[in-house]
Design a protein that fits this description.
Elements (H helix, E strand, L loop, with lengths): L8 E8 L5 H14 L3 E6 L11 H17 L2 E5 L12 H5 L4 E8 L2 E8 L6 H18 L2 H6 L2 E5 L9 H5 L2 E3 L1 H11 L17 H30 L3 E5 L6 H8 L2 H5 L4 E7 L8 H12 L5 E6 L7 H13 L4 E8 L4 H5 L15 H12 L9 E5 L1 H6 L21 H18 L4 E5 H7 E4 L2 E4 L2 E3 L1 E4 L9 H8 L3 E3 L6 E5 L2 E4 L4 E5 L10 E5 L3 E6 L2 E2 L3 E3 L2 E6 L1 H10 L1 E8 L9 E5 L2 E4 L4 E2 L4 E4 L3 E4 L23 E9 L5 E2 L5 E2 L2 E5 L8 E3 L5 E2 L5 E10 L3 H4 L15 H4 L19 E4 L2 E2 L4
Parallel strand pairs: 1-2, 1-11, 2-3, 3-6, 6-8, 8-9, 9-10, 10-11, 12-13, 12-17, 17-18
Antiparallel strand pairs: 4-5, 4-7, 14-15, 15-16, 19-33, 20-28, 21-27, 22-26, 22-28, 23-24, 23-27, 25-26, 29-32, 30-31, 31-40, 33-39, 34-38, 35-41, 36-37, 36-39
Helix pairs in contact: 1-2, 4-8, 7-8, 12-14
């Protein structure tokens, strides 16, 4: 078989839903080969039991099929269950342990109670050992020696707490077993029952109680299932892949398996389940590529495109594979390839990829393009480590909050302490991706137990990192690695990598009426000079009762407001301004109040379209305070009419290509000036859609950017019903309908609403 250690491998997730027919099975393997697939995962799924699962005839046919795959040069993986989740052994585990129960804790009427039901239990080591004996040993002993020798590896699906159905997601409970209670007593030196109310209610010590208990549950799952299965696979020289439920976020994973990191660390080909049609976040695919880089050989897998629907196009598939491959995932199993095409299979988390799609004949070209694109590019050096606050989420986790989640993809994370920590980290990981930071991820515990700082770098297993970025919500039990990384100068707080406001180049608000009264809601000693600026000569300008003197400069006429007058206006809480046009001059001049202030809308802003905000206005002025600036929305933060720039600062990472990347999405400006090394650097300019600055020294830079807004925000037409259009005529300022308007526009096109172009840059906060 061709060596593809650093290349893309596309597999079929072969849903075997009918009676085993060797000739049909072999023919379908040949079709997979012809279409350009690299291999398959044999997955009994709604299997009718003809011949019986794991029986002699079943294994004989499978041996024949495996040897045919060998002749074709296809990888052949075996899914370790009939259906899902793994662990039941097609019901044989519970049949062998008929008294087995799944138990959990519930909080009822102010008390914690133990509840349960019959079911196989992943915490019970003897049950999972029997599962290995029945399934894994069943394949080893039942397949022909040649066939077993050729099997690439085995696949486990969504093995989580108890029988795989999350009691937190379903009912707000917490998994429990006697061994967990005993382990808690050993770790804490206290009885769990004296403190288990804190798992559900806030109180002194609740964070430590919760974090320790969820850690114990995750360790029990790893010890009972993932470690022994991986050990068995490595004993017989097989790859082992597995994915969990709840991988998408730290909050979701807690209720399903406690710790993705501690469980998938045990797996030599860690995997994720990537549902739906469009790429997801850039955090969870990197968990498994990071773990494999750290503890294995880099190979990792995704079960991909489950439930993506019959509308899936080649472009959709290519974009999805690109997302996973860019995250370091080299093996992608398309969910599903239906063995038997019937009505039930049409509805079974479609589509049938690519066998049942109208564009099946184009699939070889699609796959070949992907192979070429990612040849020798999947496994890349990622020298930056993000510390995921897994413990931080566990310490604040209230199981009742998990009931708000969508159990399939984890959407709906609640606005609670634990949920906010999880959401903030997901956003920060996305921010780092948009900024082009080449990052891996690891939990606090992985860092503590496996990290070592030597010669100015952090090593975790096989991976080496020159920078470690940690959010403030991470919890550490041991300080050694963190202190060593700080001493080596490679430890950074996450806030340093998020855009922070520094200053602005001047702010303004249009004065549309000859007499304007703007509320002031700031301090009485606001700093800086204020001016009234007009593009045309005026007959007179007043601030309060004082007439102002103007001077012509920079293409306009400037009227400074004396400090004493400004102080009186601020003390009164209202900025009263008046101007008069020259009788023979411009009758609708552009006039602005300019100075060091924030312009706020009492009504707030709502999205008009992807580029614009609109507001009813009633603007007021206040001080600019750094802590109030939300850089992702500088309009709402006080700069809706800014005509200069807003200056921001952040650490950035330039890759080996010498580029600083600011992200193609979440950035709203006309362009930016970039000083890669702060004020001491030489400015360069970049703009969309790429938002990149080339020619920068690879490595970390403390960069300053000047974000430059749209000129529309200065000149408008702010009140035209459509705001900024691709065609603007003088009539759009007057409100008279003209050829530049839509045909269905009213005769008068102006409204009382204000329109501004979005202004800001997304951050990880």
């Amino acid at each position: 078989m061709e060596n593809r250690d650093n290349c893309l491998k596309l597999l079929s997730f072969w849903a075997v839903n009918g009676e085993l027919d060797p000739s049909v099975l072999k023919t379908q393997l040949e079709e997979m080969k012809a279409l350009g697939l690299w291999g398959t995962i044999f997955h009994p799924r709604f299997y009718p039991g003809r011949p019986a699962y794991m029986s002699g005839p079943y294994l004989d046919i499978l041996s024949e099929v495996i040897l045919h795959a060998r002749r074709l040069g296809l990888e052949f993986w075996i899914y370790d269950e009939n259906g899902w989740p793994s662990g039941s052994g097609d019901g044989h585990v519970l049949a062998h342990f008929p008294d087995s129960r799944c138990e959990w804790l519930m909080y009822r009427d102010g008390e914690v109670v133990v509840e349960g039901k019959p079911g196989f239990n992943t915490f019970r080591r003897e049950e999972m050992a029997y599962f290995i004996e029945y399934t894994y040993e069943g394949y080893r002993k039942g397949l022909s020696e040649e066939a077993f020798s050729y099997v690439t590896g085995f696949f486990s699906d969504e093995v989580g707490f108890l029988d795989g159905h999350g009691v937190s997601l379903c009912m707000g409970g917490i998994p429990w077993c006697q061994e967990a209670e005993e382990a808690y007593g050993l770790l804490r030196g206290r009885k769990l029952r004296d403190e288990w109310g804190l798992l559900f209610t806030d109180g002194e010590g609740c964070q430590e109680v919760r974090q320790i208990y969820w850690q114990i549950l995750g360790d029990l799952l790893a010890d009972a299932f993932y470690k022994p299965v991986n050990r068995w696979c490595e004993t017989y020289k097989k790859r082992y892949t597995a994915h969990l439920k709840g991988e998408e976020t730290l909050f979701f994973q807690t209720s399903c398996s406690g710790s993705l990191y501690q469980n998938l660390k045990q797996v030599n080909v860690p995997a994720v389940d990537a549902l739906e049609r469009y790429p997801g976040n850039h955090y969870y695919p990197r968990t498994v590529s990071s773990l494999s880089r750290q503890f294995s050989d880099g190979r990792c897998m995704a079960e991909a495109l489950g439930g993506s629907g019959w509308g899936l196009s080649p472009a959709d598939l290519e974009a999805y594979v690109d997302w996973l491959a860019e995250s370091g995932i080299d093996t992608i199993a398309f969910h599903l390839w239906q063995y038997r095409a019937d009505s039930a299979s049409v509805r079974d988390w479609p589509p049938n990829i690519p066998q049942g799609l109208t564009w099946k004949e184009a699939a070889p070209a699609v796959f070949e393009k992907l192979y070429r694109k990612w040849d020798n590019k999947v496994h890349r050096n990622r020298p930056v480590l993000l510390v995921a606050p897994e413990r931080g989420v566990q310490a604040q986790f209230n199981p009742a909050d998990a009931m708000a989640l969508n159990e399939h993809n984890g959407e709906g994370t609640p606005d609670t302490k634990s949920g906010r920590i999880s959401l903030a980290f997901s956003r920060f990981a996305e921010h780092c991706y948009r900024q082009g930071i080449p990052f891996d991820v690891a939990s606090e515990r992985i860092l503590e137990e496996h990290g070592s700082v030597e010669n100015g770098v952090l090593r975790i297993g096989n991976a080496v990192y020159t920078a470690v970025i940690c959010p403030e919500d991470a919890l550490f039990v041991r300080e050694q690695q963190r202190e060593q990384a700080k001493a080596a100068g490679i430890w950074y707080d996450a806030k340093e990598w998020q855009w922070q406001y520094i200053r602005h180049g001047g702010n303004q608000i249009p004065l549309e009426k000859e007499e304007t009264h703007i509320p002031w809601k700031g301090n009485m000693d606001s700093a800086g000079e204020w001016y009234i600026r007009s593009l045309d000569p005026l007959d007179g300008v007043w601030a309060g009762g004082s007439r102002l003197q103007g001077e012509e400069k920079d293409g306009g006429i400037w009227y400074p407001i004396p400090a004493s007058v400004k102080k009186d206006l601020l003390s009164a809480g209202e900025i009263s301004l008046r101007w008069e046009v020259c009788p023979q001059g411009e009758q609708k001049p552009f006039v602005y109040l300019e100075g060091d202030f924030a312009v706020k809308s009492a009504a707030g802003y709502r999205e008009k379209d992807s580029r614009q905000w609109e507001t009813e206005g009633d603007f007021y002025l206040t001080d600019i305070r750094k802590e109030d600036i939300q850089v992702q929305d500088l309009c709402a933060s006080g700069f809706p009419f800014c005509g200069t720039y807003v200056e921001l600062e952040s650490l950035l990472y330039a890759g080996e290509d010498g580029k600083l990347v600011f992200g193609k999405t979440g950035l709203h400006a006309d362009c930016m000036a970039v000083l890669p090394d702060g004020d001491s650097g030489q400015a360069g300019y970049c703009w969309g859609p790429d938002w990149e600055l080339a020619g920068v020294k690879p490595g970390i830079h403390r960069a300053v950017i000047r974000l430059i807004p749209s000129t529309f925000n200065t000149y408008g037409p702010h009140h035209h019903r459509d705001g900024d259009r691709h065609l603007t005529s003088p009539m759009q300022y007057s409100g008279e309908k003209g050829f530049a308007d839509f045909p269905d526009a009213p005769v008068f096109t102006l409204t009382d609403k204000w329109h501004v172009i979005k202004f800001g840059i997304e951050t990880g906060e």
